Amino acid sequence: MPDIQPPLLDRLSALLGPRGILTDPADLAPYLSDWRMLYTGRTPCVLRPGSTAELAEVVKLCAAAGQPLVPQGGNTSMVGGAIPDEGGRQMVVSLARLNRVRDIDPLDMTMTAEAGVVVKAAQDVAMEAGCLFPLSFGGEGTATIGGVLSTNAGGNTTVRYGNARELMLGLEVVLPDGQVWNGLRRLRKDNTGYALRHLFVGAEGTLGFITAAVLRLFARPRENEVALCAVRDEEAALSLFRRFRDRDETAVRAFEYMSGTGVGFYARFIEGGQVPLAEPGDHVVLVDLASSRPDAGLRALMEAVLEEALEAGEVLDAAIGESEAQRAAIWRIREEHPEAQKREGASVKNDVSVPVSKTPELIRRASEACRRLIPGIRPVPFGHMGDGNIHMNLQQPPGMDPAAFLARSHDIMETVNAVVRDLGGSFSAEHGIGRLKTDMMEDWRGGAELEVMQRIKAAIDPRGLMNPGKVLP
C-alpha cells in the first residue's frame, strides 16, 4: 500500500460511505488501464462522490493532505489522460455517480447535465424533448459529459456544430482548494470579465474538476441522407466536399474520409461488415446531410451533387442509404475502423489536423514519408476531412513483430508530425495531450504560449494536485 495517511482514508470513507470508495484490487482494476492499453497505473483507492458537494469535501480533505487526484469519466481517453501513474499514490476520482440531467429547456435549447452523464444518454434525453444534442463519435456510449468537455472532444459533426467547447454555455467546477465555482449560466451573451469556463474546457482536469455543464441543443433533423462514395483520389474527396458545401453548407452534417485499406479491414474483420460499393478502391468518403426542415429536398441535393461529381470523374461509384438501417450500416463502416485495425494487428495512431485545404496533401505526403521510413507499412488514414482532422494511423507491415513495430512509434509519429508542421497543423486535434504527448508541448507550444499555460496552472493549482503529469511537460 502506498504511503497514504490512514486518517485521510478514514475521513474519505466516512464522507463517501461504502458506495463511494473502492479499495479492493479487483474493484480498482477497471480504473487503472486506458482504452488503448498504453498505460496501467496504481492507486490506493477510487473515490466515487455522489454529488458536487461530496466532491468538494473530498478535494478539500485531499488538498489539506497534499493528496494528488486523477479525474475519470468513461475512461475512453486515447492519450492516457485519465489514468494514475505507476507510483501508486494518486487517487482516482470517478465522476460516474454524478449522472443526473438536472434540467432541459426546449425553448432556451439548453440542457444542464452532470459530468457523469453518458453522451449517448444526453442525446437520448434531448431527443425525447424534441431536440438534438449533436456531439457524436464512436465512444459516445461510454464517454461522459465531463470527459468530453475536459478534452474538448470533436467527433463526426464538428463540421456543422463545432467541438465540445462550442456546445457549452456554462460550467460548474470544483477548484483545487475545494471551492465550487457555479458558472451554470444559460446565456448566449455574457461579456463579464474573463470567460473562465473556457479555461476548464480542454484542460483535461489539470485546473479543476468539471461537475456539470449547460449544453447547447439544436433543432432535431427531420430529413437525413447518407451516402458512401468511392472517389478518384484525395483531391477528388476534397472537391466533393466543396461541391456539397457550396450547394448548401447548412446541410452538411458530416464528411468523413476513409482509405481503401481501412475499409478492407472493416470488411474482413467486422461481423456482417458489408460495403455497398462494387469497387471501393483506394479512397472512400461518407457524406451525411441533415436538415430540420421537413421539405429540405436533401435526396435531390445528394443526387444532384453526386451526378455532377460522377460526370467530372471525381466520384467512381456511390451508394445512398434507402432506410435508417442502411444509413446506420454505412456509418458503421466508419465507426468500426479502430476495432478493425486492432484486430489486424499493431498500429500507431496520430490525431492531427491541418487547414481543410491541406488534407489531401497531408494524407499523401505523410503516407509516402512513412513508407520510406518502414517499408511495407500500411497507412490507414481516416477521419473528419470536413474540419481538417485526419487520424493518420499506420498499420504494421504484414509479418512484422508487433512489439518491434510499436517500438518505432516515436519515429512514426515524428515522421507524420514533420508533415503536419510544414502544413501549419497541430499534433493534437481532438484527443488532447494526456500523458502520451506531454513531451511534444515544448517543441510545438514552447515560448510565450507554454509559459502562459504554466502560469495559469501555477496560479490555480500551485501544488500540482489536479491530474498531475498530464498536458504540461
Can you tell me about this structure?
The chain has 473 residues and is an alpha+beta fold. Helices cover 35% and strands 20% of the residues. It contains 17 helices and 19 strands. The strands form 4 sheets. Strands 12, 13, 14, 15, 16, 17, 18 and 19 form an 8-stranded antiparallel sheet that branches. A hairpin with a 4-residue loop joins strand 18 and strand 19 (389-395).
Measured between the Cα atoms of the first and last residue, the distance is 28 Å
Average pLDDT figure: 96
CATH topology of the largest domain: Uridine Diphospho-n-acetylenolpyruvylglucosamine Reductase, domain 3
Sheet/helix structural class = alpha+beta
What kind of sheet is the major sheet? 8 strands, antiparallel
CATH architecture of the largest domain: 2-Layer Sandwich
Computed over alpha carbons, the radius of gyration is 23 Å
What's the overall geometry? globular
Number of helical regions:
17
> Beta-strand percentage?
15-25%
Number of spatially distinct domains: 4
The helical percent reads 25-40%
Contiguous runs where pLDDT drops below 50 for at least 5 residues: none
CATH class of the largest domain: Alpha Beta
Query: How many β-strand stretches?
Result: 19
What are the SSEs and their pairings?
Blueprint lengths: L5 H11 L4 E2 L2 H4 L17 E2 L4 H14 L3 E4 L18 E4 L6 E5 L4 E5 L4 H10 L2 E2 L12 H6 L7 H4 L6 E7 L5 E4 L13 H4 L8 E8 L1 E2 L3 E9 L2 H15 L3 E8 H10 L13 E9 L6 H14 L3 E6 L3 H12 L1 H8 L2 E2 L2 E3 L5 H15 L4 E7 L4 E7 L6 H5 L2 H14 L18 H5 L2 H13 L13
Parallel strand pairs: 2-4, 3-4
Antiparallel strand pairs: 1-2, 5-6, 6-10, 7-11, 8-9, 8-10, 12-14, 12-15, 13-14, 13-18, 16-19, 17-19, 18-19
Helix pairs in contact: 1-3, 8-10, 8-13, 9-12, 13-15
